[in-house]
Each structure stands twice: as structure tokens, then as C-alpha cells.
From TrEMBL:
It comes from Ignelater luminosus. This is Sugar phosphate transporter domain-containing protein. It is a multi-pass membrane protein. GO terms for cellular component: membrane. The lineage of its organism: Eukaryota, Metazoa, Ecdysozoa, Arthropoda, Hexapoda. InterPro entries: EmrE-like, Sugar_P_trans_dom, TPT_transporter. Keywords: Membrane, Signal, Transmembrane, Transmembrane helix.
Length: 383
């Protein structure tokens, strides 16, 4: 029964990953086609956030997605607001990047996400990495550098926008898993909350930048149904992509999600080159592949680092080392003796625990713990 459940979970994740790749590549291709005719990345972002806010409520209720959980205002402003800001920030600059440069190059630049994750994790959480993890960033930076130098359709605004969107997505990755773990909120409800909050934050920006210019565009004045249809499809595809991405994130570990995201990037690059026919050189492709290889190497280095931490925590120490460390608990071979807060003389009970006391005329045997409250260390060691 457990094996059948495990197989079902694996098949579910595989299906969601394939669906994620197809929807994401379609969304990027249609987005590029739309921006070539309708150069308003802010409006595209607005439509996408509006799609999340409008479609999510009714559909999630129909699907039986559990309701919201209570979140304190302090936690809301500490984590939910930065997440929503990262969502609209990343969305806007992602659209600007695929507007200015080819989709393949934009996604190659987004392969720098591990670099931003390492930097932001260090700044926000004080998290340090191993030397191997830092070295894994070298092929990513080198690959993006080669792809940038050899990119035929290079644009500085496109490069900066791709980097900015990557930083926003990194911010989301850092906080999303923490919020899901801390609050127990359903991942789709979290998507709905972030979509509405991001729409509220982004609305004044859209009004100031795009709305008045939009009224004069031929697609609006002449009611160009092709552009309107592409906007609608782009919004729906983005909504579906967010649902699938959040579902995958909720089912797998952050490491597995990172690997799946890197694989998705390869798929999107390949599909965009095939359908849109962007001109590329051999060296340009080598740069893309090197950057993607760096992402996989980074994920492997992170995995090895976590495995090493687990071994350091779980591997047993020998008796001499434990006595020398004196980390609060000292193990002596004992047989059925216990002393608690006092002095025990010739007292035996099964599997004893000794706290703040001394033992007189009693032998200590077989797996008992003596606790020394005068130890300067506050570490607890679980065995």
C-alpha cells in the first residue's frame, strides 16, 4: 500500500513537471509574439496579476481548496508583503527582458538564480555555503558571460531586466517554502493572496506608466481582436503556470524544485529556438549549456552539503569523545541506576537518569544518562 502511494506521488510530480514545462514554454512564446505587436510589458503584467486575482477565488472554491488560515499582521508584513513585492517585481522585469531580448537569452540569464539565492540567503538569513557551492557558481557566471558576449540581439535593458527578474524570483523561492511551512496555508491559497496583494501594489505603477499611452495604441482604438485574444491567453497560461509551479513546490524539496526549474529552462530555450527561430551561434549555445550545467552542479553541491550536515548531526560519537565534549549529557555504561536532584546510594531502577547529583557506592551500568547543569554548552544531542 505504501509502495503504491509512493508510486502515485512520483507519477503526480512527473505529470505536473511535464505540464509545467509545456505551459511555461507556451506562455513564453505567446508572450514574445504579443510583445512584438503590443510593446506594453506593464500591461501584460497587469493582465496576468488580474487573471490570478479573478480566476483563483471561484475555481479554488469549486475544487475544494481549503480556506485561508489566520496570519498575524506582523507575519503578514514580514513575509507575505515581501513575497508579493517579489512577485510583481519579477513579473514586470521578466516581461521587459523577453521584450528586449530573445526568450532563449533571457532564460540563459535567469540561470543566475543560484547566484542571487546564495547572496540573498546570506543577507537575509545569514546562511553560509560550502566551498563547493561557491565554486559551482563559476560555470554559471562564465556561461552567462559567454552567452552575453556572443548574443546577436543583445540589449542592455534586456540583460538588466532579466537579472532583476531573477533576483525577484529568488526572493520568492526563499520565502515561499518558509511561509508554506510556518502557516500551513494551502499553496494555491497562498498564490491567490500573493496575486491580489501584488495587483494592489502594482496598480498605481501601471496607471502612471501605461494606462494613458495605452489608450492611443492602434490595438485599443481599432479593437484588434488578435492582440486582445493573445492577452487573454497569456493571462490564462500564466495563471496555470503559477498553479502548477506552486503545486510542484509544495510536493517536493527545494532542491528537487530547483532541478525541475533548471530542466524547465532547457525546455523553454529549446522550444523558443525551434518556434521563434532566433539566430544563434555555436559559441552562444555553448554559453547557454555551460550556464545550465552550472545550475545542475550547484544543485548537486547543495545536496552534498546537506547530506554532510546530516551526517555530522546523526553519526554517533564514541564513548570517550562524548565524555570529553561534556555537552550537557555524559554517557556512562550503567546498569539500571537513577539519581535525580540529589545523592543516590545503592539505588537501582531501570534505565536511569542522573541530574545534579553524585553517586555513592553504586555502580553505573548500561545506558543511563548523567546530566551536568554546570556545563557551559547549551547544545542538546539526540540519539
Amino acid at each position: 500500500m505504501a509502495d503504491r502511494r509512493h508510486t502515485r506521488e512520483i507519477l503526480t510530480v512527473l505529470f505536473l513537471c511535464v505540464l509545467w514545462y509545456v505551459v511555461s514554454s507556451s506562455n513564453n512564446v505567446i508572450g514574445k509574439m504579443l510583445l512584438n505587436e503590443f510593446p506594453y510589458p506593464m500591461t501584460m503584467t497587469m493582465v496576468q496579476l488580474l487573471s490570478i486575482a479573478v480566476y483563483s477565488g471561484p475555481f479554488f472554491n469549486m475544487w475544494g481548496v481549503r480556506k485561508y488560515v489566520d496570519i498575524s499582521w506582523k507575519y503578514y508584513f514580514k513575509l507575505i508583503v515581501p513575497l508579493a513585492f517579489g512577485k510583481f517585481f519579477a513579473s514586470v522585469f521578466s516581461h521587459v527582458s523577453i521584450w528586449k531580448v530573445p526568450v532563449s537569452y533571457a532564460h540563459t540569464v535567469k540561470a543566475t538564480m543560484p547566484l542571487f539565492t546564495v547572496i540573498l540567503s546570506r543577507i537575509i538569513m545569514g546562511e553560509k555555503q560550502t566551498t563547493k557551492v561557491y565554486f559551482s557558481l563559476i560555470p554559471i557566471i562564465a556561461g552567462v558571460g559567454i552567452a552575453t558576449i556572443t548574443e546577436i540581439s543583445f540589449d542592455v535593458i534586456g540583460l538588466v531586466s532579466a537579472l532583476a527578474s531573477t533576483m525577484g524570483f529568488s526572493l520568492q523561492n526563499i520565502y515561499s517554502k518558509k511561509v508554506l511551512h510556518d502557516t500551513g496555508i494551502h499553496h494555491l491559497r497562498l498564490l491567490h493572496i500573493l496575486g491580489r496583494l501584488a495587483l494592489f501594489m502594482f496598480l498605481p505603477v501601471w496607471v502612471f506608466v501605461d494606462m494613458f499611452h495605452l489608450m492611443e495604441h492602434p490595438a485599443v482604438t481599432t479593437a484588434n481582436y488578435r492582440v486582445l485574444a493573445l492577452l487573454l491567453i497569456d493571462g490564462i497560461l500564466n495563471w496555470l503556470q503559477n498553479i502548477v509551479a506552486f503545486s510542484v513546490l509544495s510536493l517536493v524539496t527545494p532542491l528537487t524544485y530547483a532541478v525541475a526549474n533548471a530542466s524547465k529552462r532547457i525546455f523553454v530555450i529549446a522550444i523558443s529556438l525551434f518556434i521563434l527561430g532566433n539566430p544563434v551561434t555555436g559559441l552562444n549555445i555553448c554559453g547557454m549549456l555551460l550556464a545550465i550545467f552550472g545550475v545542475f552542479y550547484y544543485n548537486k553541491a547543495k545536496y552534498d552539503s546537506k547530506q554532510m550536515q546530516k551526517k555530522q548531526t546523526l553519526l554517533p560519537f564514541n564513548q570517550k569523545n562524548w565524555q570529553e565534549r561534556n555537552n550537557g549529557y555524559i554517557i556512562y555504561p550503567q546498569k539500571n541506576s537513577v539519581v535525580s536532584n540529589g545523592v543516590a546510594e545503592n539505588h537501582t531502577t531501570p534505565n536511569g537518569f542522573v541530574s545534579n547529583g553524585t553517586i555513592k557506592n553504586g555502580s553505573i551500568h548500561n545506558n543511563s544518562f548523567i546530566y551536568n547543569t554546570n556545563s557551559s554548552s547549551s547544545n542538546l544531542l539526540f540519539v
